[in-house]
Amino acid sequence: MPRPAQRVVSLGYTSHDPLLALGVRPVAVRHWFGAFPYGVWPWAQRQLGDATPDVLTGEVSMERVASLNPDLIVAIGAGISKAEYTVLSRIAPVLVHEATDSAYGTPWDRMTLTLGRATGRLAQAQELVAGVRAAFADARRRHPAWAGKTGVAAYHWSGETGAFIGADTRARFLVELGFRPTDAVAALSGVNDFYAPLSPEDLSPLDGDLLLWVSSFQTSPDLVALPMRQTLEACREGREVFAGGVLAAALSFGSVLSLPFALNALEDDIAAAIDGDPATPVASAREAGLAP
């Protein structure tokens, strides 16, 4: 029986999160964005410990991967081509996304379980997945009124405003809490799409019971000044929550480690936003300038 992988190269932009959650410290990680050491964000730094993985940026260098002498290459969420897969397979076994998923669309739970099997830690992976599912279930029990309400995860950057849709991690975060997308946003979802830009003249698809902005604090002044945002009932009634900086990244990673981090940080604000009282302060909306 082959022994579990020991030297793992993580080429997926977020696959190092579940590996670290499993106690597997990759010999190399793929940098996505952010300036944290080794491309590891705060929710996973404890699991990284004193490890010092190589940080891979830009296009995948086959020579550099080979020099790391891996016994497993994780390319789930890496967007590699068939030609790159062929070359990498000559170096070590390569894990890629399932045919039913898009290149960057593997759900967090399936990725965690797949990596658990590949590293001989399936039982641990199952425990981790069960723990995250339980955290969301507990939140739903604490807030039964959320079930069936509409919620939209939206963005605003580079002058474009739109919604995260379908199986995107930011959209799924709200679904896990019991929300459903507005009918207009649900109608935008394509098979492989994860966001949909909207006409600047009509942002009404975003007008759910909850409007969660996933953006950056650098763009929040533009969002505050956006004229059509102010036509939304969610804006006028104080039903906006803002996830910027580290929280925006946590929702974008959508991993077994980042999702509980985001849930813990956002639950109180979501509750405040949709408690039926427009006067209830929403801390994140105030910090971003979206609320007085």
TrEMBL record:
UniProt domain Fe/B12 periplasmic-binding: residue ranges: 7-274
Transmembrane regions listed in the UniProt entry: none
InterPro entries, per the entry: ABC_transptr_periplasmic_BD, Bact_iron-sidero_bind
Keywords: Ion transport, Iron, Iron transport, Signal, Transport
Primary location recorded for the protein, binned into one broad class: other
Localization per record: Cell envelope
Pfam families attached to this UniProt entry: Peripla_BP_2
Protein name from the UniProt record: Iron complex transport system substrate-binding protein
Species whose genome carries this gene: Thalassobaculum litoreum DSM 18839
